[in-house]
Design brief:
Order of helices and strands: HHEHEEEEHHEHEEEHHHHHHHHH
Largest sheet: 9 strands, mixed
Protein name: J domain-containing protein
Number of helices: 15
Keywords: Membrane, Transmembrane, Transmembrane helix
Pfam families: DnaJ
Strand content: 15-25%
């Protein structure tokens, strides 16, 4: 039998729905070479003030789990404090005169539902990095977040055995980290980020609309018109080095080469820089003349060098301890609850890509949402048009693990992967061989229809084939 275990076997410890996970899970493939990744690693630690944690760091390839969050939110300002700069006289007892001083005077404003500033905002992973949520607690979130960019999820596709079993470059299988954060918890994190972003947007809009100089407290009403989440594996090269007995990690995205992780500082260089700054300050601010060499050495250069050395030497360890403490605290908060089947069966958990219905259709739904006011709309309406056109009555697309209307290239790739995995000759046990034969025949029958462009067209339009 194949030595690769499918994602649902690797990730889940309970009796999850295999079809549900297979339908929704996506992964971005590794496309960067080891040489490119090593170059990015060296560039990240190349600064004159940086210190490489190890000359020969341990390198491994892992798929790290992420939740991709998509939201359309209607924002309404309820109340706010508008600040305006005002001049007022203040008596100066030293000069015995009134002098003009400026300060910001805040005035509370409250709007009715009809007059309040309101708008509809779309939050997507490509434009809002806070919608890319690391779905585990194995590594400090702040370090992993460094690999996020607008292209983090570009090229996402179905996770296959070949993507995990590739041992040609590093000589071992890639790691597949467990999804340990529930979608509801990731959604709570996304909502916090959305609220923060909405408040900043509200401050900008109020400044422009009312000519305010500053905005104080802002109270908003958020209505989530639609939201969707997708589980995605992100390819990451993980460099593991040592520093004073502690493990120091550097994360590099397997496609974009975005880098995250802890930076170390070259303590001697920082000490010399600190001493140089102290000497320069002494020369410029010496006042009544330059200090003696003894004073410069004992009271300026040595203390500045010592402080710089200690900060550069100790700060990385303190930062690592603090981040690990936050990671452990977050893990205790999120993972105390037991998982259940709702993990993948939540209605808003969808395969990555199904949310992207096109800018024109998205704009139409925004206008529809504005017309409805606070009523909102059903998220399922986004996919009704496409579903009604692209059907799969005989389950041919589902058999190959593809959505209706998949391309010819996707069909061929899926068939090759499934045929290799389920070919009867790969099994020794007779019962398993019979089961594999049945699956293989079903896969072949689906492929015979979908590989032919004419047959596939008839099947897509009429459901016959």
């Amino acid at each position: 039998m194949s030595r690769w275990r499918s994602p649902w076997q690797l990730l889940l410890t309970r009796s999850w729905s295999r079809a549900s996970l297979d339908e929704k899970l996506r992964a971005v493939p590794f496309i960067r070479s080891v040489e490119e990744v090593m170059s990015a690693y060296n560039q990240h630690h190349r600064s004159i003030f940086s210190y490489r944690p190890s000359r020969a760091p341990l390198l491994r390839e892992n798929f790290l789990p992420f939740w991709a969050v998509f939201c359309i939110v209607h924002v309404e300002v309820i109340s706010a404090e508008l600040g305006f700069i005002r001049s007022h006289p203040v008596y100066n007892f030293r000069t015995k005169r009134y002098e003009s001083r400026t300060s910001v005077v805040y005035k509370p404003y409250t709007w009715t539902s009809e007059s309040s500033p309101k708008w509809t905002a779309s939050f997507q992973p490509a434009s809002h990095l806070s919608m890319q949520i690391y779905a585990s607690f194995e590594y400090p979130r702040g370090y992993v977040n460094g690999i996020r960019s607008g292209d983090t999820f570009n090229g996402a596709q179905r996770l296959t055995s070949e993507m995990v079993e590739d041992v040609h470059r590093l000589g071992r299988m890639r790691g597949l980290e467990e999804f340990r954060m529930r979608p509801s918890e990731a959604l709570d994190m996304a909502k916090e980020a959305i609220l923060s972003d909405a408040k900043e947007e509200a401050r900008m809009r109020l400044k422009v609309q009312y000519g305010a100089d500053d905005i104080g407290f802002v109270d908003l009403r958020l209505q989530y018109l639609s939201f969707s989440m997708s589980p995605i594996y992100v390819p990451v090269f993980i460099f593991e080095g040592r520093y004073l007995g502690e493990t120091v990690l550097t994360f590099i995205h397997g496609c974009t080469l975005a880098v995250g992780g802890q930076r170390l500082y070259n303590a001697p260089v920082v000490a010399i820089a600190g001493a140089t700054v102290a000497a320069f300050a002494a020369a410029v601010l010496g006042g009544g003349g330059l200090p003696t060499a003894d004073v410069i050495l004992t009271r300026m250069l040595l203390p500045a060098a010592a402080v710089g050395f200690l900060l550069a030497f100790v700060y990385p360890l303190v930062a690592l301890k603090v981040r690990n403490w936050f990671r452990a605290s977050e893990e205790r908060t999120h993972v105390q609850r037991m998982w259940d089947k709702a993990m993948w069966h939540e209605e808003y958990v969808r395969a990555f890509g199904t949310w992207k219905v096109g800018s024109g259709q998205e704009q139409a739904h925004r206008e529809q949402a504005r017309d409805k006011g606070r009523q909102g709309f059903d998220w399922s309406s986004f996919g009704q048009k496409e579903t009604s056109v692209k059907r799969d009555p005989k389950g041919y697309y589902a058999t190959l693990g593809l959505p209706p209307g998949a391309s010819e290239k996707e069909i061929k790739s899926a068939f090759r992967s499934l045929a290799l995995k389920h070919h009867p000759d790969r099994f020794l046990d007779e019962r398993e061989k019979r089961q594999a034969k049945t699956r293989f025949q079903k896969i072949t029958a689906a492929y015979e229809v979908l590989r032919d462009a004419n047959k596939r067209k008839v099947y897509d339009e009429t459901g016959q084939g």
